[in-house]
Amino acid sequence: MTGTLGSFLILAALLVATAGSMVGFAAGRSGTPEGLKWAQRFAYAFAALMALATIVMETALLSHDFSVKYVSQVGSRAVPAWVTIVSLWSSLEGSILFWGFILGLYIAGTTWVNRNQHVDYMPYAIGVWLGCAAFFSFLIAGPANPFGTVSPVPLDGPGPNALLQNHFLMIIHPPFLYLGYVGMTIPFGFASAALLRGRLGLGFLRPLRASLLLPWIFLTIAIMLGGWWAYEVLGWGGYWAWDPVENASLLPWLTATAALHSAIVMERRGVLKGWTVTLVQASFLLTILGTFMTRSGVFNSVHSFTQSSIGPTILVFLAVAILFSVITLGFRIESLEAEGKLETAVSREGTFLVNNLLFVLLTFTVLIGTVFPLIVEAVNGRQMSVGRPYFDAMVVPIGTALLFLLGVGPALPWGRPRSDEVKRALLFPLIGGVVLAAIGRALGVTNIWTLITLLFGGYAAWVTMSEMWMPLVQRMRRGDSFGTALVQGQLRRGRRRFGSYVVHAGAVVVIIAIAVSSTMRTSHEARLARGQSAKIGSYDVTFTGAETLAEPHRQSTVAHFRVMSKGKFVTNLSPRMNQYQTMREPIGTPDVHSTLTGDLYLSIMNVDVGTQNAGVLMITTPMVAWIWISVILMGLGGLVALISRP
Amino acid sequence: MNRTVLVIGILITAAIVALFAFSFGRDPQHINSPLVGRIAPRFALRAVGTGEIVDIESLRGKPVVLNFWATWCMPCHAEHPILQQASRALGSDVQFVGVVFGDTEENIQAFIRERGEAYPTLLDDKGKTSIAYGVGGVPETFFIDRNGKIVAKYEGPLSFEMLQTYVRKVLS
Amino acid sequence: MIALLLVLMLQTTKVPDAAQFVGAPQSTPLAGAQLDTRTVEIAGQLRCPVCQGLSVGDSPSAMAMNMKEQVRELLARGYTREQILAYFEQSYGEFVLLKPKFRGVDSLVWLLPLIALAIGGALVAMKMRKLERPVATAPHDAGDEYVNRVRQLVEKE
């Protein structure tokens, strides 16, 4: 019964989305207020149907209704309630339903916020959004249907994938990722609307930018959460492996960041409209490519749990979406007329162009590296790999150039600066760079790339700080008190600017932290009997014993270690090996002691409870916690910029 | 109308679709072995149970079916009776050899006691032989002709029909 | 007694020697800290065949541990980096090398980003020059200020 209800809701959603999409396009052409009203109603109806379907599914999961196909696949009476709730997105079919739900929220929300504005664009935008919604509804109704009925009804299920149950980060990483990914559909709709309408007025910039910034914030944090999860859960002590699915999450982030920057030039000078629109469309298309890469089974990745029939369907949609974008761009890009000009290349505007060049180059490089083995196999029949050595070799120089630009760009004045102004702006921050590099050298950094990163990073930090607080300083010079200047200058009027510089500050710290944590890492393997110790860095790690623990859904072997440093007790760490009922090989969970200066990471290689012997991998990674902290700072900065008046 | 955008865009679409369409149906986990067509790497390992040394070079003159497995591998359990039966049937014409890696002698002994052994089971202690043979997982089976050349490699548990096909290949 | 020793000597296990694949060692044997660092470095260049894209250095699986041990042994015997990588390539195939070779079709993966940078740089330079020229705006009536103001407000959208 529940299964039938769910299927019915999805079919209804499919019909509503398809009809609504056509209504949207028609309303766009006719331009009548009636048409727009109807398009809006279809948008709300789609969202409501998707929400209901999701509620039906969650109810089925929580009530252990194993007559519903998806519940019989991932439900289980043995798992805790939070795992049941979260299993909505643990497996393919449920996660596409989740995608549809979030898409509905975004479409309804954006439609409602703009219900009385931008009436020339909204119908087209709704048309495009509901077109995408129709595709996803089709996926849920057809190849990825979670609502089938299972008969005879099983008494229990296998539970969601064991990796999900290992760590709390698995609860928040997928929702953030979906909020980021799915959200890219909204600016895509806006950009397409501008193209269909043949005009991108500067008054439309605000919704376009806001709709791009919101998913950007989610995606930034989601990527970090993915890396953090890999670090805490997978046992190899790293946070990024250039895995195809990791790359898939990064690609749209790169183009979206580029688009956010070129939109600033568009706002200031009225140029680069066509280019910004192209980047926005690319960001959406890359999310579809990304979901294809994750679900098609074509790529060898940590994420590819199943080879499914959903791949060809997504590929068809991807092709259709690319063609749609290409055709709208090809026919209409010239109608997006420039409304201004640039003064000169050596100005802040010029650096935005270089910024875009570098981000697009990064996107291209990561994409090429990811699909190259496929290309070679298709052309030549050979199997080869493109792994970390390639990506590191390519990405590190480009990333360093971007860090350089992060400093030099905001230092340059807008428009046509005088050459002495330019020199002064560019030379002062060098002090910050040299100081930071010197500190690094004194603390033992020898790697040349890391030293360069510290130099550029210190420079960028100086520039960012001075730009961030400049309005405050200016106001105080004019007589305002510190309090007034802070509230009026930064928090009331200058939120967007302030928020952007917070993001930049976070980015500088992230890049420095990545450089330091990858090049200053030490690792050591030790085989210890009970009571024996090993040394790593300034830590003394003593194996104090191993035991087995039985829980309803898994059996674990836990090894306890006492960590001392310079004679003082630091902490106890207990990495474990978990054997889940449903997986053949055990999954290890490392244990990490995190401090602001660095982490001590312990992972079990093998352990024998009988003889009380443990093989342990010990890793010290300096500054890695700063990566998580500063990405959250970037997200907060984005949030501040988002809730700003124009 | 911007012709450049249209042309480049359509080319990109076509390339992407063609590439991914081709890649369907391909198992990303499967690796082609470079050893097929080459002489089997030489090794000599101790048989579990009897303790005798089995040297692959000394087996030349007769085709060899070299099966890599382990006691903790479920598909290997399924494959085991098929290999046993084939070995008993073909014993005089084809030499079957099993190599176990990533395992302990006690586990193997227990397995043999329970399920029998129709041909030598060798222990590859540090996995060096498996590395030389490019073994990525278990079970994997190499079919070697009477001159010591690897004719084929099969990944995964062998069914009776597959085994027949490959043995025929190696006998001809 | 001697006969027993002889028999024992003859009956030793022999694991496949790298010499079968890559010949004799071409460098001096390593030891100590240098051996450790080089092992980690070369293990990072090899792909773990049973994992999803992890290097042998990073992977916690038993297979990767064995391969790492093999790398260490070969380094201790004096094999060079190229020989060790060639050894694994001959048994596992090209697939096991994480760094694509700069040879034939594979060199494209290294060259394409450079070509993209060159083309992109040229395009950016061209665009900057184009943008520096004043834009030919549509003719507005210089005369009617009211119409102009309205047009300005309306065309913001």
What's the helix and strand layout?
The complex is a heterotrimer of chains A (646), B (172) and C (157).
Chain A: H1 2-30, H2 33-62, H3 69-74, H4 81-86, H5 92-113, H6 122-141, H7 169-183, H8 185-197, H9 205-233, H10 244-269, H11 273-295, H12 310-332, H13 348-380, H14 388-411, H15 419-427, H16 430-442, H17 448-477, H18 482-493, H19 495-519, E1 522-529, E2 533-536, E3 539-551, E4 554-565, E5 568-573, E6 576-580, E7 587-589, E8 591-594, E9 598-608, E10 613-622, H20 624-642
Antiparallel strand pairs in A: 1-10, 2-3, 3-4, 4-5, 4-6, 6-7, 8-9, 9-10
Helix pairs in contact in A: 1-2, 1-6, 2-5, 2-6, 5-6, 5-7, 6-8, 7-9, 8-9, 8-11, 9-10, 9-20, 10-11, 10-13, 11-12, 13-14, 14-17, 16-17, 17-18, 17-19, 18-19, 19-20
Chain B: H1 3-23, E1 44-46, E2 53-55, E3 64-69, H2 74-90, E4 95-101, H3 105-115, E5 121-124, H4 128-132, E6 140-144, E7 150-155, H5 160-171
Parallel strand pairs in B: 3-4, 4-5
Antiparallel strand pairs in B: 1-2, 3-6, 6-7
Chain C: H1 2-10, H2 19-22, H3 32-43, H4 62-76, H5 81-92, H6 107-132, H7 145-154
Helix pairs in contact in C: 3-4
Write up this protein.
The complex is a heterotrimer of chains A (646), B (172) and C (157). With 646 residues, chain A is an alpha+beta fold. Helices cover 63% and strands 12% of the residues of chain A. In chain A, strands 2, 3, 4, 5, 6 and 7 form a 6-stranded antiparallel sheet that branches. In chain A, strands 1-10-9-8 form a 4-stranded antiparallel sheet, with helices on one face. Chain A is globular. The mean pLDDT of chain A is 89. The model of chain B has no long low-confidence stretch (mean pLDDT 85). Chain B is of the alpha/beta class. Chain B has helices at residues 3-23, 74-90, 105-115, 128-132, 160-171; strands at 44-46, 53-55, 64-69, 95-101, 121-124, 140-144, 150-155. The model of chain C is unreliable at 138-142 (pLDDT under 50). Chain C is an all-alpha fold and 157 residues long. Chain C is built from 7 helices and no strands. The longest helix of chain C has 26 residues, at 107-132. Classes of the chains: A alpha+beta (646), B alpha/beta (172), C mainly alpha (157).
